[in-house]
UniProtKB/TrEMBL annotation:
GO molecular function, one term: metal ion binding
Protein name: Calcium voltage-gated channel auxiliary subunit alpha2delta 4
CDD domains reported in the protein's UniProt record: PDC2_MCP_like (cd12912), vWA_VGCC_like (cd01463)
Subcellular location: Membrane
């Protein structure tokens, strides 16, 4: 028994120990749960810190002084309400005049080129040396100039962004695959020498002209001013002007094209390779005003894209590239039966014409085959004869000529053109032949109605030079025809002349200062694609390199103005209407991180003689009001020359580009010389200059105030820069700290574009200030590649006649040390604190390891933390549990934002959702891409599709290649603080502990103080809340749209359509160069 008792006693002792441990744990957990952060202590910290922070920023910014000076001048200022209807008309008229002058220059080139050809007789033995842009200024191993090279003087020119050019001579570029001494080439180059004088004359008449050129139908390219052409890394000049959009659009009228390709067994091997290359080359000749579909046939008819059955889709860049991917997957089999495929093609084109769809102009079928054996005449009798509205072009593939006669007969009896393509090298030249048939005129029309304008255009040649600001442009082009009597009625195309217009220069005609902090101007094409918009982002970063996005010139207005869900704005502008509308929008600033709710008033109208529409935005409220002051030139000039003052370098105060002698002046220098009367010929914006002078006078006392602080008072360490800006683009700043000790060395330097007045936007600190309460400072953190600092900014106003307008913004930049020093000194209670009436932890200190303390701004970004690496990060990433509670309490609310110009890794579907609402391709592309991303995953090996975040969607396979970036749509959250909720505190249950937090708004600021319990880890229960964008995945089953219900893109009416010539009935040759049927 003693053994049993001993065991029982041991068991009791063990049980008592276990109960003791459990009791201790219960007490410990209870202690953890009962840890209380006194809200009144946090409130006191917030109140004291608010006072000190406000005193600091007011003192070193001088905001009260500036507001007082504005108050003093209220009796002599006038506040005007901007009339958007009048402004949009004035600016569009200016743009119309500018573009009209470019058209006149191009018209002179076209007429000169035609006259030169008229008086030239072809000379098969012509010997003629010309400047080949590849050969100039290059010597061989013996030091001798290369043939067709020689010395060609080049000088850097400011107007051409300091590129080395020759402004007295043009030169010639010839593609590597074109023989540069071919008789046709030499005769055409000899003729085009006459253009050189016209180039120079145009440039003298209009010094704002940039590149002028002539693209010959024989393949060479004459460019002015002359440049040294840089080949690719293999020494090849692959550039062929005939493939450029400006050439194609000028050389042809809008068209509907059905490409029919034979994929029967006889097309295997090289034939199929040639056929695919032919299709791709045809697709490359199409543009946004064209419509297309591709049909493959054997003994049955197959649409390469089943979702496009029986319809036409717009031939924009996305659609063309999509077709190329599908064509590459074609495989041969079976026996060719052309009859049913031809019937299907005619049905598509006839229905489009009958329903008023497609281009409503030229229609053609492109037949690609190695032979036609059937009796197909009945098809043409039923669908195309006798009117022959649809032209048929035939491309005989391969070396065999057995069925050449049948293929030729099809083209010749349907007003088309027949070509034989036996090798890959033949494709380019032979495909181009159809452009001579679908010419935009019969050869007798004037050039008044045949100008072509391109979409936004990025010159790849200039992209690799210093001319970065000339990247985005539009081109105006006109066709050049033979006017010789014997071929006049044939409409023989000699080539295309054109000129580039930098879109930045066009947009400068809508002065930025008139539009306000959040206002802007934009241009779109008749297809709804953006030419210029401050939110257009044509480049992306691939590693360390900037590259053009694949779809940079086909970004739809609906992808940027995505709040236009009913398409009122887009529809009206595409139709070329004049009017206005209003939208409540979710805008964003600071690289999309900070959402803003704005009401935008849109005003729009068309630009005559172009396919463009112009729009502008004035934000309701302060964006529609501006004040006008008046001071004498003498008084204003004195202050305008202050060393602390600058004006917006990208704005046009005075036009310095008209007279080459003025190009050496900065905008400030030009303005001062004009006001002094030293340059009376300068064209200047009188209203802007007057406002700039007034602002210079009103803000002048700040220079003395800031300097006095430096001289008479010890500037607090960490306060580095004070600054101000006005609506006129004027800025003043003072550096309290030297460059050696300054943390923010880049801030407000020329490289700091985000914080300067540019042609696209006001400074970030200005835009944030005007949306905040005037006089109350807005604080936000900056993380510039690891360099972290704080900016405080506030707006100043002026009132008159019962109206209040924003006059500008003023602020101070300081280091983190400066803010931390004050905050940590305040956020702790001394050890002798009287804790009698305080319920909770006392004394309380943010320095304690038991607490985490944060200053967080109104968008949820950390301004101050114990951990420096957390500054600038979103608070939800650092503490998801507290942020989730604040969102649930309503202290922060989520704002859904979208980016339809994003780049994702291996995007499964790269069309934008906005587009799917606008055209049949956009609707169907989503469905196709869903199909490929869910069913044909092997296409991923071709970098066609993929995901941004692997944890957001399920990976269906293992990648075999380096992930590439592709255009995609993304959604991402932003957050905004609800100012009606000033304080909050709560407990968060996190497993074995409860986490307490207290949040208190910092008065007179956009900041909140967050104090949390540090020793309760909730990361297992609450994951981080991230701002990272998630790719939008469009799934067939849930999409309300379907392939069977396409929505056609609304296009501007075609102003000129040339689809046939009476002379065609006089000629029957359809397979010789330059002879038109």
């Amino acid at each position: 028994m003693s053994g049993v008792e001993s065991r029982m006693e041991g068991r009791d002792v063990g049980m008592r120990k276990l109960l003791g441990i459990l009791g201790f744990l219960c007490l410990w957990i209870t202690a953890q749960a009962q840890m209380k952060i006194p809200p009144e202590t946090v409130q006191q910290w917030a109140s004291v810190f608010s006072v000190q922070l406000r005193e600091l920023t007011i003192k070193y910014s001088g905001s009260l002084l500036l507001q007082k000076k504005l108050k003093d001048v209220e009796s002599i200022v006038k506040i005007v309400e901007l009339n958007g209807d009048d402004l949009v008309k004035d600016y569009s008229d200016e743009i119309e005049r500018m573009l009209g002058s470019k058209m006149k220059s191009v018209k002179r080139l076209a007429e000169s080129a035609e006259d030169a050809d008229l008086y030239h007789d072809f000379n098969a033995t012509l010997e003629f040396d010309y400047y080949n842009s590849m050969m100039i200024n290059t010597v061989d191993e013996d030091g001798n100039s290369l043939e067709l090279g020689g010395e060609f003087p080049l000088e850097e020119n400011e107007h051409f962004n300091n590129m080395p050019v020759n402004v007295v001579q043009s030169d010639i570029q010839v593609p590597t695959n074109v023989y540069n001494k071919d008789p046709n080439i030499l005769n055409a180059i000899y003729n085009s020498e006459a253009l050189n004088d016209v180039f120079i004359s145009n440039y003298q008449k209009d010094p704002t002209l940039t590149w002028q050129y002539f693209g010959s139908s024989t393949g060479f390219f004459r460019i002015y001013p002359g440049i040294k052409w840089t080949p690719d890394s293999n020494g090849v000049a692959a550039f062929d002007c005939r493939n450029r959009n400006w050439y194609i659009q000028a050389a042809t009228s809008p068209k509907d094209i059905i490409i029919m390709v034979d994929i029967s067994g006889s097309m295997k091997g090289l034939k199929m390779t040639i056929a695919k290359h032919t299709i791709n080359t045809i697709l490359d000749t199409l543009g946004e005003n064209d419509f297309v579909n591709v049909i493959a046939y054997t003994d049955y008819v197959r649409y390469v894209e089943p979702c496009f059955r029986g319809t036409l889709v717009q031939a924009d860049l996305d659609n063309r590239e999509h077709f190329k991917i599908l064509v590459d997957e074609l495989h041969v089999k079976g026996e060719a039966k052309i009859k049913n495929a031809m019937k299907e093609a005619f049905k598509i084109l006839n229905e489009a014409r009958a329903n008023g769809q497609g281009s409503m102009c030229n229609q053609a079928i492109m037949l690609i085959t190695d032979g036609a054996m059937e009796d197909f005449e009945s098809v043409f009798e039923e669908f195309n004869w006798p009117e022959r509205r649809v032209r048929v072009f035939t491309y005989l593939i391969g070396r065999e000529m057995t069925f050449a006669q049948n293929t030729k007969w099809i083209a010749c009896n349907n007003k088309g053109y027949y070509t034989h393509i036996s090798t890959l090298a033949d494709v380019q030249e032979n495909v181009m032949e159809y452009l001579h048939v679908l010419r935009p005129t019969d050869g007798q029309s004037t050039h008044d109605t045949t100008s072509a304008w391109t979409e936004a255009y990025m010159d790849t040649v200039l992209f690799n030079t210093k001319a970065q600001s000339l990247l985005l442009m539009t081109s105006v082009a006109m066709p050049v025809f033979s006017k010789k009597k014997e071929t006049l009625s044939h409409g023989i195309l000699l080539g295309v002349v054109g000129s580039d217009i930098p879109l930045m220069e066009v947009m400068k005609l809508a002065p930025r200062y008139m539009l306000g902090a959040h206002g802007y101007a934009f241009l779109i094409t008749n297809n709804g694609y953006i030419l210029a918009h401050p939110d257009l982002r044509p480049l992306y970063k691939d590693g360390k390199k900037l590259k053009p996005k694949p779809n940079y010139n086909s970004v739809d207005l609906g992808e940027v103005e995505w709040e236009d869900t009913e398409e009122r704005l887009r529809t009206a502008m595409v139709k070329g209407q004049t009017g206005s509308t209003s939208l409540n929008v979710r805008a964003s600033v600071d690289k999309g991180k900070r959402p803003l709710y704005l009401t935008n008033n849109y005003f729009y109208t068309n630009i005559d003689e172009t396919p463009f529409s112009f729009g502008m935005v004035l934000t309701r409220g302060h964006g529609s009001l501006m004040f006008v002051g008046n001071v004498s030139v003498e008084e204003g000039l004195h202050d305008l020359t202050s060393p602390d003052l600058s004006i917006a370098t990208e704005w046009t105060y005075c036009e310095t580009d008209i007279d080459p002698a003025h190009r050496k002046y900065t905008q400030l220098q030009a303005a001062i010389r004009y006001l002094l009367g030293k340059e009376p010929d300068l064209e200047c914006d009188e209203m802007l200059l007057q406002q700039t002078l007034f602002d210079a006078v009103v803000t002048a006392p700040l220079e003395a105030y800031w300097n006095a602080l430096m001289l008479n008072d010890r500037v607090e360490p960490g306060v580095e820069t004070a600054f101000l800006g006005t609506r006129s683009g004027l800025m003043r700043l003072i550096r309290y700290a030297g460059v050696e000790t300054r943390v923010a060395k880049k801030f407000l330097t020329p490289a700091d574009k985000d914080n300067l007045f540019t042609v696209d936007h006001f400074p970030l600190w200005y835009r944030l200030a005007v949306e905040n309460t005037p006089g109350s400072f807005f604080y936000y953190p900056v993380n510039d590649k690891g360099v972290k600092f704080i900016i405080a900014t506030t707006s100043v106003t002026v009132s008159s006649g019962g109206k209040t307008a924003m006059a500008g913004a003023i602020g101070v930049q300081m280091s983190l040390d400066c803010l931390e020093k004050r905050f940590w000194a305040i956020a702790k209670q001394p050890s002798d604190t009287d804790c009698t009436n305080i319920e909770g932890v006392c004394p309380l200190s943010c320095e304690s390891a038991d607490l985490n303390c944060f200053l967080v701004d109104n968008n949820g970004f950390i301004v101050l933390s114990k951990e420096r690496n957390e500054v600038g990060r979103f608070f939800g990433e650092v503490d998801g549990s507290v942020m989730a509670s604040l969102i649930k309490m309503g202290m922060y609310r989520k704002v859904s934002l979208f980016d339809y110009q994003a780049m994702c890794k291996n995007s499964h579907h790269h069309a934008s959702s906005a587009r799917r609402l606008l055209s049949p391709f956009y609707v169907m592309a989503a469905l196709i891409r869903w199909f490929f991303s869910n069913a044909l995953m092997f296409l991923l090996d071709f970098n066609f599709c993929g995901l941004w975040h692997s944890d957001y969607f399920v990976d269906a396979h293992k990648q075999k290649k380096v992930e590439a970036l592709q255009p995609c749509d993304t959604a991402y959250p932003g957050f905004m603080y609800d100012t009606s909720v000033r304080e909050a505190n709560s407990l968060i249950k996190c497993g074995r502990c409860q986490k307490m937090f207290v949040v208190q708004a910092i008065p007179d600021s956009n900041l909140v103080l967050v104090v949390t319990q540090a020793d309760c880890d909730c990361s297992r229960q609450y994951g981080p809340i991230l701002l990272e964008p998630k790719e939008i995945k469009y799934i067939l089953q849930t999409d309300r749209r379907s392939c069977s219900a396409p929505c056609w893109t609304q296009l501007c009416p075609v102003t000129s359509c040339h689809d046939r010539s009476p002379a065609e009935f006089l000629y029957k040759r359809c397979h010789d160069r330059f002879i038109i049927i």
